[in-house]
Specification:
The structure holds two protein chains of two kinds.
Chain A (H helix, E strand, L loop, with lengths): L8 H28 L20 H6 L2 H35 L5 H8 L7 H15 L5 H25 L4 H8 L4 H30 L2 H6 L7 H11 L3 H35 L1
Chain B lengths: L3 H45 L6 H5 L1 H7 L10 H17 L2 H11 L3 H10 L8 H8 L6 H10 L6 H6 L2 E3 L5 E3 L7 H31 L3 H16 L2 H12 L4 H9 L12 H25 L3 H9 L4 H29 L3 H6 L7 H11 L3 H25 L9
Antiparallel strand pairs in B: 1-2
Helix pairs in contact in B: 3-4, 4-6, 5-6, 5-8, 10-14, 10-16, 11-14, 12-14, 14-16, 15-16, 16-19, 18-19
The chains are: A mainly alpha, B mainly alpha.
Chain lengths: 275, 407
């Protein structure tokens, strides 16, 4: 968007101004994330530049059974259980909503995704009180239930969006060819909406994997997840091993975005081919 | 035969439709039931705690029962005093009286010591109890004491909700402000709203030009700029907050850069204050402003702008009357998202803010975990939810493009 040669002075000024402000914004967004990465490879223990030398010792320090690997294990257990339950519940609900003819469908949909609109502290406190009364505080089951509440709306949304581009006559075709509803779903609907289901599953996993507030309320030390342990680390002793954990989490989320972008790209290509 | 065939088909179709609807409903049902049990029920139960008032009823049941018949004039009669002595005796034996006394103290300051000392002497009291209690402490003969007790013994109370905005009821039941020295919570509400406003304004100021640049960039540049927005967007909030803690420390990167450039001789306090909160909150919420504005800006046809220019509009007029109205829905959506999310922030202010930078969420967490005053936590949670609803409806109205204004 180069400026035309007949641009007025005020046009030139605003052109430059927009670029300066926006450029500052982009640097502001990305620089802090990039700036911390080298520190995790420092051979010293200061969290600043210049680095005294390169070393992997902080990663070695992180890859010890306690506390980091055990909290990684907890995160993976809770994250994958959340992912499985949320994906099943959310996909079923999204498919059901698609076919449901119901006066208050919009309200029902809003209620099913409403955990997204409530501040996590409020949901966390509500679950804390509830779990305290039913004995789920400080249990894996409690953490999984709580994370499933927060994660399922993402699955409902991603699968619903994919279903909007889905042609329902394909199911009718399958039914008229003798398939029953389940077979039609499994062999026609599911393969087509699969990218949405997988994106939903990834969203659900990330939601649980990055979640900290609910973990603060209901996790006992034996269920401490990676973010919970990181939170304790930031508060108590800030050294490059904390940065190393942050960088590892960063790598995990970057990999997951790549998968998501790939899926989005694939869906876009498939749908554009159809037209 | 001729007439029954279509009917038959119709009823078959209706039956198939019903079966389909039943199937659809049974697919939605598991999630609906799950959320009902694991989200709406806990949420409702927690919010209900903000008006629930059972401590006094549970631990002083006889007095609570007897006081319901008191007409509120003068002082109650002997039956209430006798019930009180009974409750005090049982309560001090079971050691539950302190729980009731604490709850009574919320209603009237000083009630705790009044009840506790009477409980200790309860075995020495002799009938008529009205006289012997008043002899023990003249406060038992005061009208205000019993008004307070009656209110504290009611099953529901507005006490916590009023307290969450620094209000209370006086003896006559009039709602009034608590003394200035004891006002705490309203300042958290004001601060929460102010931080939300500043963060939203900063996000808009940065996000609007950024979205403009992305929307008008070449496809190649656009995908690069997009990654610069998406990568932070996808990075966990805690990791980004951690990054800011590391960067803004007194020995951190920002300070050493400032000193190296020569802007300052010693480290500046950049963290554990409001500056740190604003910087990290804007960093976390900026993508939520950019994404909706960008998606609207992309759909603005360029030829509208050319038309405006060719009709003689100056660039500013084109921007003001053609571009901005078309971009406004995106701005509204971005502001709504950012402000609603900002109101609920907890982790970031807790890690990069000082004592004077904490928001309502912090108070809710404190009351839940540290002081275990669940009623107050519930009242403040309700206050936060109401604040979000109000802010949401204001932002959605404030910057709605006013149609017909310019047509």
């Amino acid at each position: 968007m180069a400026l035309p040669s007949h641009a007025t002075a005020s046009q030139r000024i605003s052109y430059v101004l927009v670029r300066i402000v926006a450029g500052f914004g982009f640097v502001f967004l990305i620089a802090p994330i990039l700036a911390i990465i080298p520190i995790s490879f420092s051979s010293g223990s200061f969290l600043s530049y210049p680095l005294p030398g390169f070393s992997l010792k902080w990663y070695e320090a992180v890859l010890t059974p306690y506390p980091w690997l055990s909290s990684l294990r907890n995160s993976l257990i809770i994250g994958s259980a959340t992912m499985v339950i949320a994906t099943i519940l959310g996909t079923m609900a999204a498919v059901g909503l698609q076919n449901l003819r119901f006066k208050y469908k919009a309200l029902l949909t809003a209620l099913l995704v409403s955990p997204l609109a409530v501040p996590v502290v409020v949901s966390g406190v509500a679950l804390y009180f509830f779990f305290a009364s039913v004995g789920l505080l400080g249990t894996f089951a409690g953490m999984i239930l709580a994370h499933t509440v927060l994660a399922t709306p993402f699955v409902v949304i991603t699968v619903s969006v994919t279903l909007q581009g889905f042609d329902p006559t394909l199911v009718q075709a399958a039914l008229s060819l003798g398939a029953n509803r389940f077979e039609a779903f499994r062999s026609v609907t599911l393969p087509i909406i699969m990218p949405g289901v997988v994106s939903g599953a990834i969203f659900a996993f990330i939601t649980s994997f990055d979640e900290i507030v609910v973990a603060l309320f209901i996790a006992a030390p034996s269920q401490f997840t990676l973010p919970r342990q990181l939170f304790a680390g930031v508060r108590d002793k800030l050294d490059p091993s904390i940065v190393a954990v942050a960088v590892l989490l960063l790598v995990v989320s970057t990999l997951l975005i790549l998968v998501l972008e790939l899926l989005r790209w694939r869906t876009e290509r498939l749908t554009s081919q159809k037209r | 035969m001729t007439s029954s065939a279509p009917n038959n088909l119709k009823s078959k179709l209706a039956r198939a439709n019903r079966r389909k609807q039943f199937l659809a409903a049974s697919l939605v049902a598991p999630l609906a039931v799950f959320l009902l049990v694991a989200f709406f029920f806990p949420l409702g139960k927690m919010l209900f705690l903000s008006v629930e008032n059972t401590d006094v009823q549970r631990h002083m049941p006889q007095t609570s029962e007897a006081i319901t018949t008191w007409d509120g004039q003068g002082i109650p009669d002997e039956t209430v005093y006798a019930a009180l002595v009974d409750d005090l005796r049982i309560g001090s034996e079971n050691r539950t009286i302190a729980l009731a006394a604490t709850s009574l103290n919320h209603e009237i300051a000083g009630f705790r010591s009044l009840v506790m000392s009477a409980a200790r002497r309860s075995d020495d009291l002799t009938p008529p109890f009205q006289q012997s209690l008043i002899d023990h402490n003249a406060k038992w003969g005061e009208h205000e004491t019993w008004v307070g007790f009656q209110r504290a013994a009611a099953p529901y109370t507005l006490r916590y909700l009023l307290a969450s905005v620094d209000l209370k009821r006086d003896v006559d039941g009039e709602i009034q402000k608590v003394p200035e020295s004891r006002r705490v919570y309203i300042s958290y509400l004001k601060r929460t709203l102010w931080i939300c406003f500043v963060v939203t304004a900063l996000c808009l100021a940065l996000g609007f030009p950024m979205s403009y640049l992305i929307a008008n960039a070449s496809p190649r540049a656009r995908s690069i700029l997009f990654i610069l927005v998406l990568l932070p967007f996808w990075t966990s909030l805690l990791v980004r907050t951690t990054a800011w803690v590391i960067l803004l420390q007194s020995t951190g990167i920002v300070n050493s850069m400032l000193m190296w450039v020569g802007l300052t001789d010693g480290p500046i306090q950049l963290i554990f204050n409001r500056f740190g909160v604003y910087v990290s909150m804007v960093h976390i919420l900026l993508p939520f402003m950019i994404l909706p504005i960008y998606s609207v800006m992309r759909s603005i046809p360029k030829n509208h702008l050319h038309a405006s220019a060719s009709l003689g509009a100056r660039p500013f007029a084109t921007f003001r009357y053609v571009y901005l109205p078309r971009a406004l829905p995106g701005v509204t959506a971005g502001c709504m998202l950012v402000s609603v999310l900002a109101l609920g922030f907890y982790i970031t202010p807790a890690l990069v803010g000082g004592a004077g930078d904490q928001m309502l969420s912090f108070l809710i967490a404190e009351f839940t975990i540290r002081t275990a005053n669940w009623h107050m936590a519930a009242a403040l949670a309700l206050l936060l939810l109401l604040t979000i609803i109000v802010v949401f409806s204001i932002t959605s109205r404030l910057i709605r493009p006013s149609r017909g204004n310019r047509s």
